[in-house]
Amino acid sequence: MSVDQQPRILVVDDDERARRTLNDILIADHYSVLTCADGATALKLVRENDLDTVLLDLVLPDINGIEVLRQIKKEKPRLPVIIISGYGTIRDAVSAAKAGAYDFLEKSGFDKNRLLLLVRRAIDQEKMAKEIALLKTEIFKKYHMVGVSPPMRKVFEFIENVGPQKANVIITGESGVGKELVARALHFRSPRKDKPFIKINCAAIPKELIESELFGYEKGAFTDAKTQKKGKLELADTGTLFLDEIGDMSLSAQAKLLHFIQDGVFERLGGTKTHKVDVRIVAATNKNLEEEIREYRFREDLFYRLNVVGIYIPPLRSRREDIPVLADYFLEILCEEHGTPKKTLTEDAMEFLKNQYWKGNCRELNNLIERAVIMVKQTKITAEDLIKMQELSQPIITSEPVSLRQARADFEREYMLNILAQHNWNLTEVAQVLKIDRAHLYRKLKRLKIEVR
To answer: What one-character DSSP code corresponds to residue 265?
Structure first.
């Protein structure tokens, strides 16, 4: 292991002999060591270095060791600090623990093996804490929302105000505007942020299966119920349940969901035992639920139970000042994800983006940028490049002679794949666009050998 790779430890002790002893023990065990004799220097070294652990004497000539510990934990909360002292008392140990010390080690009866064991454990804890923090940062970065327009500033304000609350939320807006991102942002801004975020897409699951997905089932509840299965509600306990496309939920499932929201309890399919869970519900839809209520397709009482607070996410075409910000953001993230050199958009490319209609909203913009990241080899992406990327998503027409039946089948399959992509594989939307029912759509997809995602 090179010196740069060795864990770095700071030893703070005004006793030169003790400092040298600790230094020698740690170096012999392949640690990189910094040493100092007072609190002020210790704090300076903590600020200037990436440390893995601190060994801190309780009694220092300038600043009390407990005070140094408090300052370290204030500036670097995850940095483990092991208190060492030749005059340790139970009171000192308690004070150190309260101030955030990892452990307390007495100089009297000094045990080298115990010291090294504590240091190893402290470093492992620090490493794990760093990995968790990095993971959380990456998750936040992935679901981060960007925008400078007044409508998006209202959305951010809504997230800040409503996120910490327990109230149920309904998010409305067209497909692709980022309703799921808002739902995740609400979760991450809530006290439940470290608990489960469970999503169920009500449009992607056949109506006859939605109840078993939501509430779970007992063994033998129906023909294929070979084992017991927990539903999404149980999996989301103490966290957030995101009901995407709530407008496509069957009326029978709506009734059971209403019962759960009112009483906080439910039963698995085929079961009699009552289950109680603590779940916050965030729902989303691209439908006009008030219109659905008038058409008797959505329960009014459920609507009011869910719509404690609601937010509408405006389409991208009504907030064009967000397009450059989103485009640059997508470009940065997608270059990282695909491992390609950093790319930029030229002025004419940005003007091209700002002048598009964006029927698919942010999702369509993201898809176009992703195609450019993959296909454009140079570091600057032009308007001409983007036009070519759009053409790539159009149906491909071959010049090779084929039978009329094969040509019709090829066109129909390509056309279907494009429609599915435009609507993010939302089968309810696709069926509406094609003016066919869902059962007919399923049969057509099977015939065209298109697997449903």
So the answer is: E
